[in-house]
Amino acid sequence: MTKFITLKEIEAEYPERENETVKVRKKRQCNIRQVRKRFLNQQAREESIEVGPSNEPYITQIRAYNQVLAFTSLDVNLNEELANAKKRIYIFRIQGKLYYQISILMLRDNNQKLTFAQIYFYDLNMNNQLQRRQEIFSNLNAEMLIILQDELSVNNPFVEQL
Question: PANTHER family, alphabetically (predicted)?
């Protein structure tokens, strides 16, 4: 017959394990506090700026937001007749081949502006990343960019801060 041992029995039998368990619990609680704090900050930002389909400036510039946060750029022969958002539906029709323009990760010189994935690799400071993105499209809302950057750093393993 199999006997199940509880955590309390293990802690009583191996006191040195108790310290490890306490350390793990404290670390987990600390991580939970950090996540909760980040969530509350994110929630406060989102309440101050309306996110969603009713936010007209965001909807009209959604491609620009997407581009400044992208790892790569897409290059196609675009059908200009169909590529419009007049009726709230954007039709994207590709003629011929589809290309991804991926910037090399190594900078050629110090004066070169960072683009795409380079922004994520060369500058881990989120404020500097925001500034670099605003240099690309200066008319984008800084608060909205902060919300989107934070969302990516929390949910995307490729963007996750080191």
Answer: ATP-DEPENDENT DNA HELICASE, DNA BINDING PROTEIN-LIKE
Over residues 103-122, the pLDDT tens digits come to 555 556 666 665 555 565 55
Residue-range definition of the domain harbouring residue 41: 11-48
- Residue 3 in any domain: the answer is no
Cα distance between residue 115 and residue 67, in whole Å: 10
User: Both 75 and 42 in a single domain?
Assistant: no
Report how far residue 95's alpha carbon sits from residue 134's, in angstroms, rounded to the nearest whole number: 31
Q: CA-to-CA distance for 8 and 52, rounded, in angstroms? A: 49
The string of pLDDT tens digits covering residues 47-67 is: 556 655 667 777 778 777 877
- The answer as to whether 77 is a domain residue is yes
- The reply to whether the predicted model has a pTM over 0.85 is no
